[in-house]
Amino acid sequence: MKKIGRNDPCWCGSGRKYKTCHQQTDEKIEYFRCKGVLVPDHDMIKSQRQIDGIRESGKVNVAVLDYVEEKIRPGISTEEIDRLVVEKTRELGGIAAPLGFEGYPKSVCTSVNDQVCHGIPSAHDILKEGDIVNVDVSTIYNGYFSDSSRMFCIGRVSPEKEQLVRVVKECVEIGIEQVKPWSCLGDMGDAVHQHALKNGYTVVKEIGGHGVGLEFHEDPFVSYVAQKGTEVMMAPGMVFTIEPMVNMGTDEIYVDEENNWTVYTADGKPSAQWEVTVAVTADGYEVLAW
Fold it and tell me: Based on CB atoms within 10 Å of each CB, which residue in 34, 71, 154, 241 is the most buried?
């Protein structure tokens, strides 16, 4: 890390002196780095002003998902869900982050049943009684990004699907409890993985969470099959998503060859996912979007 004087302005842009802002955090990070621990660099750590901005973006993101929750029902198309997201996001002064991201053609991801993630909304995809669907909303508000998703059970679903949806939400809640400064992301990932395994499910390895806030996808990559004591150390100011993709059957997946986006389970069995954006604080965590 670049050497900064105690009385110099902090590197984070807060305007405060380094000694009253990030000096103690940097010294603790350097201590762990010298012990061989994988530690975050400054690009992974947000200032308080930035976290405040991400929190405001998260409020919009949550409001959009609340709006979808009010409207979603049997007979609605996933294209209509996309329209609802666009409508509410604009009303609240935000921008839907997915549209145009690396060529993605819609403003939200809608992943139904055996679609693991990145399901593209379509007028031809009509939700019916017994479906489960993940609606993944990402918002840009005043230049800050937030990201969260929820599972919805359409009408009466089978007990097997209902349990999968419940357990993946529990996985996220267990993961959140493991977010604490100076522990490793692998501690969180392992807790998520073990809860899924205990319930007879598998967790997708290839796709995970990510840093978020100033960009849509930032470092670090967040694995939910990592082992305790591995991966980058969590430090105050880090902001990332917790979003395990839990499958009823195999953890193997494939990508739709036609649209090159939608990910499916290899065995056709259902998959479920919940997602939150969380910030690491001095003594734990703050959920910024859910």
Answer: 241
Please state, in angstroms and rounded to a whole number, the distance separating the CA atoms of residues 198 and 191.
11
Of residues 83, 93, 103, the one with CA closest to residue 139: 93
CA 195 to chain centroid: 18
Q: Which residue, 52, 53, 139, 147, is CA-closest to 88?
A: 139
> pTM to 2 decimals?
0.95
The whole-angstrom separation of Cα 219 and Cα 140 is 18
Helix then strand count (H, E) for the chain reads 5, 15
Q: Which helix (H) or strand (E) holds 193?
A: helix 185-198
Task: Return the pLDDT at 2.
Answer: 59
Q: With contact defined as beta carbons under 8 Å apart, do 160 and 248 qualify?
A: yes
Classify burial at 269, counting beta carbons within 10 Å of its beta carbon; exposed 0-12, middle 13-18, buried 19 or more. middle
**Structure confidence at residue 62 (pLDDT):** 98
Tokens 């349990």: give the residue.
Answer: 163
